[in-house]
Design brief:
Helices cover 46% and strands 20% of the residues. It has 167 residues and is of the alpha+beta class. The chain has a five-stranded mixed β-sheet with strand order 4-3-2-1-5. Residues 145-158 have a biased composition (Basic and acidic residues). It comes from Pseudonocardia tropica.
C-alpha cells in the first residue's frame, strides 16, 4: 500500500485550515486518514504550523511520501532536513505571537480611561452644528414674539371693554 503525507482541508469558504495526515494515496483529499500528525493554519500571521516531529520522522522512515505542500511545511519546521541528514534542522518556523488575556486587556483599558481628564467631551461635535444652532436660536425668538403678541391682544381686549363701560 502506497502511503502519503498530505493536507486535509477543513474550515469555511475563504477561511481554510488544514490537518497534516498520513493516508493511503488512493483516498480522496478529505477521505479517511490513517493518522493525523499535525495542523496548518495559513491565514494566521505568521502561519501556524504544528507537526509532531516524532510521528513525521517515523512515517518518513517507513516510506511515506509527502506531497509538495507538506514537504515545504516539513522544511519550514526542520523535519525534512532532519530526515535527510542535511544541515539546518532547526528550520525557519516563525514563533506565534503570545495572545494577551482578555481580562488583562480590559483592566489596562480601564486604568487608561481613569487616568484621562473627564472635562473634555468624549465624542466630537457633529458636522453642520451651525445650522442646528441657528434653528435653535430662532425657535425661542419666535416663541417670544408670539407670547408678546398674545399679551398685547389681551391688553387691547381689556381696554375697549373699560372704555365702553365709562361712556
Amino acid at each position: 500500500m502506497a502511503v502519503k503525507i498530505k493536507l486535509m482541508r477543513l474550515g469555511k469558504i475563504r477561511q481554510p485550515y488544514y490537518r497534516v495526515v498520513v493516508a493511503d494515496s488512493r483516498t480522496r483529499r478529505n477521505g479517511r486518514a490513517i493518522e493525523t500528525i499535525g495542523k496548518y493554519h495559513p491565514k494566521n500571521e505568521p502561519s501556524l504550523i504544528e507537526i509532531d516531529s516524532d510521528r513525521a520522522q517515523y512515517w518518513l522512515g517507513v516510506g511515506a511520501q509527502p506531497t509538495e505542500s507538506v514537504q515545504n511545511l516539513l522544511e519550514i519546521t526542520g523535519d525534512w532536513q532532519k530526515f535527510k541528514g542535511l544541515p539546518g534542522t532547526e528550520g525557519t518556523l516563525k514563533p506565534q505571537v503570545e495572545k494577551v488575556d482578555k481580562l488583562a486587556r480590559f483592566n489596562e483599558a480601564l486604568a487608561a480611561a481613569n487616568e484621562e481628564p473627564t472635562t473634555a467631551a468624549t465624542t466630537p461635535k457633529k458636522k453642520g452644528g451651525d445650522r442646528a444652532g441657528k434653528t435653535a436660536d430662532a425657535a425661542p425668538a419666535e416663541a417670544a414674539t408670539k407670547s408678546d403678541d398674545v399679551a398685547d391682544a389681551t391688553k387691547d381686549a381689556a381696554e375697549p371693554a373699560t372704555e365702553s363701560t365709562q361712556s
